[in-house]
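ok trying again, last paste got cut off:
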Amino acid sequence: MMKALSDIGLVGLGVMGQSLALNMESKGFRVSVYNYIPEITDRFMAERGEGKQFYAAGNYEELVASLKAPRKVFLMVTAGNAVDQVIGALLPLLEKGDIIIDGGNSHFPDTARRTALLEEKGLLYVGTGVSGGEEGALKGPSMMPGGSAAAWPAVKPIFQCISAKAPDGTPCCDWIGPDGSGHFVKMVHNGIEYGDIQLICECYQMMRDGIGMSNDQMRAVFADWSTSDLDSYLISITADILAKKEADGTYTLDRILDTAGQKGTGKWTVVSALDAGVALPLIGEAVFARCLSAVKEERLAASAVLPGPDGDMPDLVGQLREALLCAKIISYAQGFALMRAAATEHHWPLDYGRIAGLWRGGCIIRSVFLDKIKEAFDRNPALENLMLDPYFAGKLASAQQSLRLVVCEAARCGIPVPALASALAYYDGYRCKRLGTNLLQAQRDYFGAHTYERTDRPRGEFYHTLWQD
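nice, full thing came through this time. structure:
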């Protein structure tokens, strides 16, 4: 029999759900747990949850009855219909002021819809991004909550207690804003993660296939980069991956098939950018690179038919480091530009310096680099593009020549670097005083009478030319 009411309930005992439950319990919170497959709950209670402050609920009624008011139910279930089904089961059991929390990777329009639905019924809803994987969930994730603002005081003590802490001790969790803003910021985080990973993979392929470096030599390079301004979780784990060997002494990485999976958040980021009219080419190329990797059999066939160039690549390791830093700045600039556009469209009061601060610990893209982004937006909250901040503009000025050299050498040697090349194209496009788009507008006006603006007239006036007399 239950002896005391729990501080929070958790539905869904998958890898992330179990880790979050253990994290909460380790911080002194009593947690009620429920999984729709009873055997999973039983196994958790008998193994990882044995002897701890957990209450195992056999159904939703028991779960709700075991919670202190206002009741807080944290969902860690698969995004999509499963979330709606659990909400539907909980609604008749909850009372005014109770809180449902979705900690999965839900699409932000769904979170906005659910927030409005629950608020109409007198309940509160929180959609929170949770980043850091299994280890982060257990030891301290980065959390990005949004939704019903009235819920924040009730969940804040738990969220900020279980979240990661930045080097200065600040919790990597703070309120993002209304309706779907928390899940939107998490989506952009994942899109930036796609870009970071793709950029690292392109550097790895240039070292492996272009320069001809061994795994151990590459491991040393990434280990060295992790002591520089490129220091990050992803750089660090890349060094670890390159060092890992099988029982027979061969490298594990060399046994892994070069086909990548994805769960949709990168695609959502790109689609959101297209909807908002924001240029997000680097993250788009990262998503498409995974799609291209998936057609392994086609690529094998094409490799025997389609010729490539001949030529040796010089040792570009020093330039690769600078190119990676340059492209990383450009990628983050695109991600924050997308958040700025979304904030304007949805009337979200996003604090970009604070968001960068939330990503300094716990999450997959955590790095020393984010301290500089936080400082940039703290200096100028109205900064239109991260590349225009004096610190980052200076870094780009010194590193852009290395990015040019790396992209040129990759093209000369036939090594695909879509994200690096895209970063350079965005940089040059953004700094270009006069693009060739005037011809594009003339063509649109020629075949479709779409009109155009003129350089010798005020902005906002549109003209049409009869191109054929």
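cool. The chain has a mean pLDDT of 96. The two ends are 90 Å apart (CA to CA).
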